[in-house]
Specification:
single chain; mainly alpha; Double Stranded RNA Binding Domain; 2 domains; 10 helices; 3 strands
């Protein structure tokens, strides 16, 4: 984990599934469900802060989608597997026999509970240091996946179905210092404005403008 607990009981509590807590009353304060509740909120704040700071060209809607993708069960399940968290879960006999150490819902919940335990034991900065590597890697993959889609080509192919329709892009301007400029581009169909986009490069801004244009045209992206 890269973190040493001052109160190891917090970690034990975070790893205790409800089935274990029911079978070992008094051994742990209860199941990890309350810690999971807290961890979900801590994770949401840290993720939102990171995306807000590092993806300044993305509008609110894109940031919301990225955050949702990063904190969903599938993502947390992958994070938990990186830690081999399933090896350390405290499970009741029934859950143990049914293979719950590898169940996505249980592992994702445990990941949030462990995050909450770090937060309670070491504070917000400790929790941030612990979870940020997972968020950064996940966000990097998501953003790269979005950039791999060639929205400009898709839009051009649609426009070519109607002879005489012309797609063109206009650079509106840029903001920010030279090392971190954000460009704004507008996308037009003939003289009609279809989409606006921002990006760290003109190419990225054109792709974002084409993406908005495709949405306006009702395309499923």
């Amino acid at each position: 984990m890269g973190y040493t607990f001052r109160d190891e009981q917090l970690l034990r509590h975070a790893l205790a599934h409800s089935s274990y807590a029911n079978e070992h009353r008094g051994e742990v304060p209860g199941s990890n469900e309350r810690l999971e509740f807290l961890g979900d909120s801590v994770l949401g704040v840290i993720t939102a802060e990171y995306l807000y700071s590092h993806f300044q060209a993305l509008p609110e809607g894109n940031l919301t989608k990225m955050r949702a993708a990063l904190v969903c069960e599938n993502s947390l399940f992958e994070f938990a597997k990186e830690l081999k968290l399933g090896d350390y879960l405290l499970l009741g006999h029934g859950e143990e026999r049914s293979g719950s150490r590898n169940r996505p819902s249980i592992l994702s919940d445990a990941f949030e509970a462990v995050l909450a335990a770090v937060y309670l034991d070491g504070g917000f900065e400790a929790a941030k240091k612990y979870v940020l590597p997972f968020i950064m890697e996940g966000a990097k993959k998501l953003h790269a996946g979005n950039q791999d889609h060639d929205y400009k080509t898709t839009l051009q192919e649609i426009a070519q179905q109607n002879p005489g329709e012309l797609i063109h892009y206009e650079l509106i301007g840029s903001t920010g210092p030279d090392h971190a400029k954000v460009f704004e581009v507008h996308c037009y169909l003939n003289s009609n404005l279809l989409g606006k986009g921002k990006g760290r490069s003109k190419k990225e801004a054109e792709q974002m403008a084409a993406k908005e244009a495709l949405k306006l045209m009702g395309e499923q992206l």
